[in-house]
Specification:
The protein has 366 residues and is of the alpha+beta class. The protein has 3 domains: 113 residues, DNA Polymerase III, Chain A, domain 2 (Roll); 122 residues, DNA Polymerase III, subunit A, domain 2 (DNA Polymerase III, Chain A, domain 2, Roll); 114 residues, DNA Polymerase III, Chain A, domain 2 (Roll). It is built from 7 helices and 25 strands. β12 and β13 form a beta hairpin. α6 runs antiparallel to α7.
């Protein structure tokens, strides 16, 4: 195998496929990239056995071939070269020579036959979704995913498909995020799939706000996605997601409206003196005024008042301040609507008149 490619073409392509590669791997081959050179292009593939990311780039090809190379070392070499450099990769015996100008590097390789390429999705349901819409669905909900919960089905997000809508849900057991978009997928039967958290994080890194389409093929146990010249294949989490509609409280009688940015700044200031472990803040809802209070084991206290629209009885509710800040970060409008019942019931937060979203936050004792 031998080819030449410009640094400004190779480096972005490497950036697309190396994000899922961990620095420490149980299998040495997973630290490598799979390269296939043919027809004046090179296909790069990275994998961690759960996710596979693949992209292709144009090259000046002299000899076709297939190898695997250390991913991080190759990226570091490319980054260290000057902008606009021409890079030549050439196999010599059981090594790969990387040359650019007066720089020469010799990299070890592993057989391409050992690389665990994922099988294609068989008999999957195919549909398209606008890239910006898909990114918005993930950005609105991903913060509520569990990461290493023993309830493995929570370590990801739920895609709930219906004939005319797509609802995305994430929860870690203490909070829940739900966002619905009008996405017509022509699916005759409702279906739910759970995408692992690592795949969600990688998708958020790769997706842009473009109007291009993302092609998604849903199989029984895996999902294949095409985003421009990048393809991603991921295993799906095999499990039954909780019935999220039962978690969302209904018939909440109390409603308040607040300025989002003002509340966010007040939460950040009050959190400074909250308990470092539990991050609790007490919100006292009074007609016309919201009082925020926090204290820590050193008997230090923070207190702040802000205006709100509320005309009912006084209620004090404790919350994890980090959960509320996360919600403020994904609400689009300038105003926040909060619905609640009492100090022991979950509340629903959303943007004012934003009926397509719901953020459920459980209370905490302070």
């Amino acid at each position: 195998m031998e080819f030449t490619v410009n640094r400004e073409i190779l480096l972005p392509a490497l950036g697309k496929v190396t994000g899922i590669i961990e620095r420490r791997q149980t299998l040495p081959i997973l630290s490598n990239l799979h390269l296939v050179a043919s027809d004046n292009q090179v296909t790069l593939t990275g994998s961690d056995l759960e996710i596979e990311v693949k992209t292709a780039l144009p090259v000046a090809l002299e000899t076709a071939g297939e190898i695997t190379l250390p991913a991080r070392k190759l990226v570091d070499i490319c980054r260290s070269l000057t902008e606009g450099s021409e890079i030549r990769l050439r196999m010599k015996e059981d090594r790969c020579l990387v040359t650019s100008g007066r720089s020469r590097f010799t990299l070890g390789v592993l057989p391409a036959t050992e690389f665990p390429l994922m099988a294609a999705v068989q008999d999957g349901f195919e549909f398209a979704i606008t890239e910006s819409v898909f990114k918005r669905l993930l950005d609105k909900t991903a913060f509520s995913m569990a990461q290493q919960d023993v309830r493995y089905y929570l370590n990801g997000i739920l895609l709930d498909f219906n004939p005319a809508t797509l609802t995305v849900v994430a929860t870690d057991g203490h909070r829940l995020a739900k966002f619905t978009s009008d996405v017509v997928v022509n699916m005759t039967d409702a279906r739910q799939v759970i995408i692992p958290s690592k795949t969600v994080l990688e998708l958020r890194r790769q997706l842009s706000n473009s109007d291009g389409d993302v092609t998604i093929i849903l199989g029984e146990k895996s999902c294949h996605m095409v985003i421009g010249n990048l393809t991603m294949t991921t295993k799906l989490i095999d499990g039954r997601y909780p019935e999220y509609e039962r978690v969302i409280p209904h018939n909440l009688t109390e409603v308040a409206f607040l300025k989002k940015d003002e509340l966010k700044r007040a939460l950040a200031r009050t959190a400074i003196l909250s308990n470092e472990k539990y991050k609790g803040v007490r919100l006292n809802f009074d007609p016309g005024t919201l009082k925020l209070q926090a204290q820590n084991p050193e008997q230090e206290e923070a207190e702040e008042d802000i205006e709100l629209e509320y005309n009912s009885d006084s209620i004090a509710i404790g919350f994890n301040v980090s959960y509320l800040v996360d919600v403020m970060n994904v609400i689009d409008g300038n105003e926040v609507q909060v619905q609640f019942q009492d100090a022991n019931s979950s509340s629903i937060w959303r943007g004012r008149n934003a009926d397509d979203e719901a953020y459920v936050v459980m209370p905490m004792r302070i």
